[in-house]
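Predict structure. Chain length: 383.
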Amino acid sequence: MRITKVWHSLIRVPLTETIEWGSGTRTGTTRLVCKIETDSGVTGWGETLSLIAAVPAVFEDVVAKLAIGYPVSDAERFHRHVLGAGYYHHKRAAVMAIAAMEMAMWDAFGKIAGQPLHALWGGLWREEIEAAAYLFSADPAALSDRMKGFADNGYTTFKVKIGFDAESDIALAAAARQAVGALPMRLDVNGAWTPGTAKRQLNRLADLDPAYVEQPLELDDLQGHADLRAYSACPIALDESAYTLTDVGNIARARAADVVLLDPHQAGGLWQVIKAAAICEAFGIPVGLHSGAELALSQAAYLHLAACIPNASIAIDTEHAYLGGDIAGNAPVITDGRFTVPTEPGLGIHISEERVETYRVNEISGAYLDPARAGWFPVKPAY
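Prediction complete.
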């Protein structure tokens, strides 16, 4: 069960439309995918978010080299081995690169065991996974039309990007609430607010009854988020603050969140998410899963996680509706706002290497900023 060969590449899949958020615009999703071969003849595939140049660099220079000879069952040890190679000082520079390899290890291990991944992590807690419709628009009228379209397709939870400016925060949230009635509506600020602005905006938003307001303050300000929880009746969710296991432990200790959004790419692996979710469960905190436009491998991994984690009790984020393609013939699909959990061994995904080749690129492009605004860049907090 030891790894004998590692292959990897960047791929970029276009989105069906340009999406807008507080840190710029995006027209595609860049991912790092990897394939491992083992001495037992079984292969495994992994995928990770690749937003910055550190991801492929760390994967190629450290992760891929350390993986040769590793048993695919030793996911925890491998994660710590990479951190021990100097990245315990720079965890956020390493986690996304680790995640691709760790996912491939689990995929191979599940295939060897003849079991879907959720069966290796405690078993099936839920068979269907609710998906939240994800909305990206700075225009209230366009947002309203799009939300109604998602509702017509069976979605029952909605997430709206705000954080452009103070007035549009309220206008977008009001348009969203009018469009979907009493259905759950989440608002994602992406750390745009100062503490003073946050208090004012939460007061203005309270009557719209958001399911939660996500990352209202800069990611390091756990005390500020704890203060907002005490100040406002609007639940506070943290995502950018919740990368690593230590991050999640600090959030729980500080009582800084009502909801925590986890992400295996940002945590450094699937197993790290399971551990982080357990911390949250002990504190009575529900968890969701953050979306960065996952392709088939990562989407399947999300479904296995959500299927077996008891406190993953809220709809998972997904940008699935915006993907202009994928790398598998059996990529997960959404029906009436829900995914079905894969049941084949490992991730349960059949990769098309021809499609992988079609989407291969040599660099990361369009992750942040906005080509239409030369010289512009986001500042956190912004207002």
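Summary: The longest strand covers residues 3-21.
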